[in-house]
Amino acid sequence: MDPIIEVVALCLGFLGWIMVGVAIPNRYWKVSSLDGTVITTATLYENLWMSCATDSTGVHNCREFPSLLALSGYIQASRALMIAAVVCGTFGVLATLIGMQCSKAAGDNEILKGRIAGTGGAFFLLQGFCTMISISWYAANITQVFFDPLYPGQKYEIGEGLYIGWASGVLSICGGACLMCSCKLGTKEKTSYYQPTRETIYSASASRRDGQSTYGRNAYV
Asked: Mind listing the pLDDT tens digit for each residue in 144-157?
């Protein structure tokens, strides 16, 4: 496997892992503005964990969601997928570091290193898929409510936290694909050595004896 591809894939996966950690606590997953007078203008924003409001004076107030079971199903699923993405990214970074050619953790066994690096690529792919599914599911619910003319409640728009999550998913998938497609998971080509059999050795010895005896008889003619 090309060491440059290993480094590029590791950088992409690691950057995607960091961005997942940035997207999870980001408060602006969905944003809504309540326009009115200067005093009543406010901005509402939510993420997976809390709902916040900011007025025109810059004072903000946040309220955490009281119960997990009382939340919508897509929020619960998004939480689980984002946590799974962080866990998969952690295993992906560790496996890729161990499986790199410049690493001494796995010794000089290139086959083992290739398989460990491929496992790291699989974890990066899982991280990217979990992130993309979570972010896209959350965004789909935002757009569905926004374009529903019969929805009586407050409508929101896509916030910056979702864009960070999408970028994280793309980077993780690219890094995992590079590792999975480039690492050598096959076995090494074995060097074939000639193993003479007992019959071959006996025939060669007999030929040498016959040659020596013939040379001895002809030498004195």
From this structure: 988 988 888 888 89
Instruction: Provide the 8-state DSSP code for 48.
Output: S
Structure tokens at 4: 């440059």
Q: Quick one: which of 175, 154, 128, 135 has its CA closest to 9?
A: 175
Range of the domain at 149: 3-194
Q: Is residue 182 part of a domain?
A: yes
Residue 145 lies in a domain: yes
Number of domains in the chain: 1
pLDDT single digits (tens) 76-98: 999 999 999 999 999 999 998 88
**Does 130 fall in a domain?**
yes
157 in helix, strand or coil?
A: strand
CATH number of the domain where residue 43 is located:
1.20.140.150
Q: Which residues of 81-92 are buried (b: 16+ CB within 10 A; e: fewer)?
A: bbebbeebbebb
Give the pLDDT confidence of 10-65 residue by residue, as tens digits. Answer: 999 999 999 999 999 998 999 986 655 445 567 888 999 998 888 777 788 888 88
